[in-house]
UniProtKB/TrEMBL annotation:
It comes from the Bacteria. This is Transcriptional regulator. SUPFAM superfamilies: Winged helix' DNA-binding domain. The lineage of its organism: Bacteria, Pseudomonadati, Bacteroidota, Cytophagia, Cytophagales. PANTHER family: BSL7504 PROTEIN. Residues 14-93 form the Winged helix DNA-binding domain. It holds the Pfam family HTH_34. It comes from Roseivirga echinicomitans.
Amino acid sequence: MGFNQLDPLLHSQLRLAVMSLLISVEAADFVYIKEQTESTAGNLSVQLDKLSTAGYIEITKQFEGKKPKTTCKVTQKGVDAFDTYVKEIQQYLKP
């Protein structure tokens, strides 16, 4: 039995945590994602940018009053990649 190579973009702990979180909600703002993943703002920004560049998430920046607000949501491409990643992990875990 051969194993597929795991998606290197999702095989990062923080990016996988972000995707898992976004899969379960319609959208989430940067502060919420940062709190839930217990990451630093700088590291999270870099990882969100990588997921966005790959087309796995969509990032919207806007203002609420005078405060900037960044919202992220998973795209269909991201959902498909996540589903594939989960199936491939399950293949590795089968006895």
